[in-house]
């Protein structure tokens, strides 16, 4: 049994001090609860500090009780909640502290949809800073400790403000842009320089405005003549998790002991599967017929999760005339019809979960990301009849035990191709363009690496579109044909528009693999 002096020293090593009443309370808890470990208590207290529950490292009894209650409640939650869905509007931010080179999870309850102009300025500064930190952690751009260790492979990155007046080949990290005269430039946090890319060689990817690139070249007459240009290297998920040092990007407090329990639960559920469909037009009778076939086929197996991604109607609500028009009440009726269909299969309703992600043509704020869930007027009756249904934002995060998935619906392939400032290096056949899109998104660490003119974003919620650390799987629903690509250990796939050929994807989280399926 740990005594008061030893407990005090252990906490002191972690920069924590307890009030005398809190110290007595903790000693009593450790003696009466044998499963409670001091390292888990330290983790819970430090997480409380990171999450702004505590304002000081001197811990009171009330603050300690709050941290312990959170710690002890997490285990039971995770035992039964294998699927957790996170809305983009609820997702916390990862804040980096340059002085300590550490991260913390930050929740800002004051964020608004109509944010102040300072948030717009911060969008691209923050995007650039996130990528720059990642690049400088990479072995190629991380300066060796001594001149003899890996010095031949080291590439020194220059600040753009230091380029003028220098000679020779230099490497820079900068954000692409184009002025009103269509002149291309690179800029970082220090300065801007116009570039000549006529003779440059490009790696794979779609180089559009606001993309962050690595460029090598030389300055001639105050213009940076680029020889080669490519994207920053990605950072594997496992390496990013090491950098975060136990900080959970979703703000979920889980101790080491609880993590072991969750991993054991995940290991015992290897047969779990997800059914993922996109562009499920509920106003199309043929789509409803095929959904009935889908539900009847899967009822004996009860997949863990069904993910339905919009658009949920063939035409936007409010468009069209006469019999071809669609009102908000029509969409509500379509969801009521879907509920009636699902209730024919009670095993699915009881044992599966259903997540609904809106598309660009569904009701809501037009052409702005992230998008709110479908309006309650359309879905409240559906959710009442199907309690296992979750209406969430676009994009959203899904956590399955220890694995993370991102779900996104946008016409990205078309938008990114239109915003490209350089020729795509490979033949523009379907699969190659898909690979370019995937590489661009992963390397940029952002779900919408586009100018705000091409894809408006709620300024205060841009952080919810960043993908750091990388997810295990990225579901990029689009209006193009189905594709599946694996890059940087991330399984990226588009299930295809269901209304076109009734195709969908069956995903196996235990193996991170997909099956392309179609209802004939």
From TrEMBL:
Segments forming domain DNA polymerase epsilon subunit B N-terminal: 5-69
What family name appears in the similarity comment? Belongs to the DNA polymerase epsilon subunit B family.
Annotated Pfam families:
DNA_pol_E_B (PF04042), Dpoe2NT (PF12213)
One GO BP on record is: error-prone translesion synthesis
Task: Give all residue intervals belonging to the DNA polymerase alpha/delta/epsilon subunit B domain.
Answer: 274-483
GO cellular component terms given for this protein: epsilon DNA polymerase complex
Name of the molecule in the record: DNA polymerase epsilon subunit
Q: What is its main location?
A: nucleus
Q: State the UniProt keywords alphabetically.
A: DNA replication, DNA-binding, Nucleus
Protein role: Participates in DNA repair and in chromosomal DNA replication.
In its keyword annotation, does this UniProt entry include Transferase? no
Which organism is the protein's source? Answer: Aphanomyces stellatus
Q: Which Gene3D superfamilies match?
A: 1.10.8.60
Compartment(s):
Nucleus
């Amino acid at each position: 049994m740990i005594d008061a002096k030893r407990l005090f020293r252990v906490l002191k090593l972690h920069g924590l001090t307890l009030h005398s009443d809190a110290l007595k309370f903790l000693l009593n808890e450790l003696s009466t609860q044998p499963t409670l470990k001091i390292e888990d208590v330290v983790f819970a207290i430090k997480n409380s500090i990171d999450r702004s529950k505590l304002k000081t490292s001197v811990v009171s009894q009330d603050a300690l009780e709050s941290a312990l209650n959170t710690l002890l409640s997490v285990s039971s939650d995770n035992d039964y909640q294998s699927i957790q869905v996170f809305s983009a509007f609820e997702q916390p931010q990862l804040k980096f502290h340059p002085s300590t080179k550490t991260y913390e999870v930050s929740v800002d309850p004051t964020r608004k949809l109509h944010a102040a102009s300072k948030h717009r300025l911060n969008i691209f500064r923050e995007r650039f800073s996130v990528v720059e930190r990642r690049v400088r952690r990479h072995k190629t751009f991380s300066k060796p400790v001594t001149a003899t260790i890996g010095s031949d492979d080291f590439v020194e990155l220059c600040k753009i403000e230091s380029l003028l007046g220098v000679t020779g080949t230099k490497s820079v990290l900068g954000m692409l842009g184009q002025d009103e005269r269509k002149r291309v430039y690179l800029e970082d946090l220090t300065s801007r320089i116009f570039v000549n890319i006529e003779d440059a060689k490009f790696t794979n990817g779609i180089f559009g405005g606001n993309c962050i690139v690595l460029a090598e070249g030389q300055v001639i007459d105050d213009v940076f003549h680029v020889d080669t240009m490519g994207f920053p290297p990605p950072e594997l998920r496992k390496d990013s998790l090491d950098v975060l040092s136990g900080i959970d990007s979703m703000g979920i407090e889980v101790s080491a002991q609880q993590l072991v329990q969750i991993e054991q639960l995940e290991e015992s559920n290897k047969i779990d599967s997800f059914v993922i469909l996109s562009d499920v037009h509920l106003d199309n009778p043929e789509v409803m017929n095929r959904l009935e076939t889908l539900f009847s086929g899967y009822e004996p197996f009860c997949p863990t999760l069904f993910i339905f991604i919009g658009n949920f109607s063939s035409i936007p609500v409010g468009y069209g005339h006469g019999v071809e028009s669609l009102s908000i009440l029509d969409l509500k009726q379509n969801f009521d019809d879907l509920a009636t269909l699902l209730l024919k299969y009670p095993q699915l309703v009881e044992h599966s979960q259903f997540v609904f992600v809106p598309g660009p043509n569904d009701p809501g704020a037009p052409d702005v990301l992230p998008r709110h869930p479908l309006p309650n007027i359309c879905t409240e009756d559906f959710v009442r009849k199907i309690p296992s249904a979750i209406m969430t934002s676009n994009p959203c995060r899904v956590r399955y035990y220890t694995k993370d998935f991102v779900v996104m619906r946008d016409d990205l392939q078309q938008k990114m191709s239109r915003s490209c400032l350089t020729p795509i290096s490979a033949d523009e056949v379907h699969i190659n363009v898909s690979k370019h899109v995937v590489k661009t998104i992963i390397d940029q660490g952002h779900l919408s690496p586009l100018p705000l003119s091409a894809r408006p974003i709620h300024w205060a919620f841009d952080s919810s579109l960043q993908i750091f650390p990388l997810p295990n799987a990225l579901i990029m629903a689009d209006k193009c044909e189905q594709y599946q690509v694996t890059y940087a250990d991330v399984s990226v796939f588009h299930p295809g528009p269901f209304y076109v050929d009734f195709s969908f994807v069956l995903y196996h989280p235990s193996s991170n693999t997909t099956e392309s399926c179609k209802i004939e």
